[in-house]
Amino acid sequence: MGEKVTNGTCELWSSTTDLDNWTEDIVGSGTVTKESTEVYAGTYACRLVSVGAGNNAAITQDVTLVAGNPYLVSLWHKSTSTTLKIRLLIKDTGDNVALTDAGEWESIDGASYIEITPGTSYVRYNLAFTAHASYTVYEIAVATFNNDHTSYVDNISLTDTNVDHESNGVTLADVGGSGRQVVYDSVSIKDDFKYYLASSEGKIFTYSGDYLSDDGSVILSRWRSKTLDFSDQIPQCLDRMKEVTGVKLIYKDMTTSTNVTVYVSSDGGATWEHETKSLGTGTGEILSATYHFIKTGEYFIFAIEHASTDKEFMWLRMEADVVPLGPYIEI
């Protein structure tokens, strides 16, 4: 199990044009550059620029896979235009076969790239596939091509999804995400003078003493996920029992000593396990905190809660460690 791509987070650079562990493949006036503004997560992303026809930019890396094992490739990407597609290539290093957008292998030809339609804000692309029975060493490449085209990529990942009862990291929610991976389900409920407020951007807003609830209590802010079985990212989780062993919360360090509670339920929200941590020093950096749980079930709901009169909390991503267990059998 585990990540097969090295430095897929694009955080490590030897220079502004040399992404560690990747090879820059430049044609003509294309460029590969360290990006510190248009970033999905962390400090840096990778900016790929092509300038006119025939000028392309790509990053490539060789990875070793187990023949016949299932994998999931994913990346976060955006572009200056939704009409300018990003290309993804996964092929064996002997140039025999390449992966299609259907997750199948075909003989290599001149059009072996998978073309991905980007958004003008970061969106996630993922594709499940099985490694070819005849090959073990592959090249993964992400590229722009032709036209005047600027793209940004971040968090490139290729993971083994074979069920072997080891922990799988899955993304529960991402600010600015789109498609079926989005699980935020913001709520706005008034109950006993407490307000449960959140936004799909993941921000819990600042409350001052002027905005206390009717009886003067602190306002409670809560984000709650949809019901999840993780099969969108780990296909082998479908119709199986799972064990959640922890949740990582990636957040922006907005204020000091902010109490944030993470909850997990495996019975539709009837009962919850939870842990509270005091987060932040007010540096403005992107940080993470790990919450530890042992929770077994087929379906899960997650929640983040924060209560304050004068502090704000902004989460950026939520991830879970999941162990697939045996199939679910009704008796």
Descriptive account of the structure:
It is a single chain. The protein is mostly beta strands and 331 residues long. It folds into 2 domains: 2-160, Jelly Rolls (Sandwich), CATH 2.60.120; 168-327, Jelly Rolls (Sandwich). The chain contains no helices and 26 strands. It has strands at residues 2-3, 13-15, 18-19, 23-27, 31-35, 45-50, 56-64, 70-79, 86-92, 97-99, 105-107, 114-116, 123-130, 137-144, 149-160, 168-174, 188-191, 194-197, 203-204, 220-224, 240-252, 256-265, 273-281, 286-297, 301-307, 313-327. Strands 1, 5, 6, 8, 13 and 15 form a 6-stranded antiparallel beta sheet that branches. Strands 4-7-14-9-12 form a 5-stranded antiparallel beta sheet, with no helix packed on it. A hairpin with a 2-residue loop joins strand 17 (188-191) and strand 18.
Q: Spell out the CATH superfamily of the largest domain.
A: Galactose-binding domain-like
SS-based class: mainly beta
Number of strands: 26
State the helical fraction: under 10%
**Element string (H = helix, E = strand):** EEEEEEEEEEEEEEEEEEEEEEEEEE
InterPro entries: Galactose-bd-like_sf
Ordered list of secondary-structure elements with their pairings:
Blueprint lengths: L1 E2 L9 E3 L2 E2 L3 E5 L3 E5 L9 E6 L5 E9 L5 E10 L6 E7 L4 E3 L5 E3 L6 E3 L6 E8 L6 E8 L4 E12 L7 E7 L13 E4 L2 E4 L5 E2 L15 E5 L15 E13 L3 E10 L7 E9 L4 E12 L3 E7 L5 E15 L4
Antiparallel strand pairs: 1-15, 2-3, 4-7, 5-6, 6-15, 7-14, 8-13, 8-15, 9-12, 9-14, 10-11, 16-26, 17-18, 19-26, 20-25, 21-24, 21-26, 22-23, 22-25
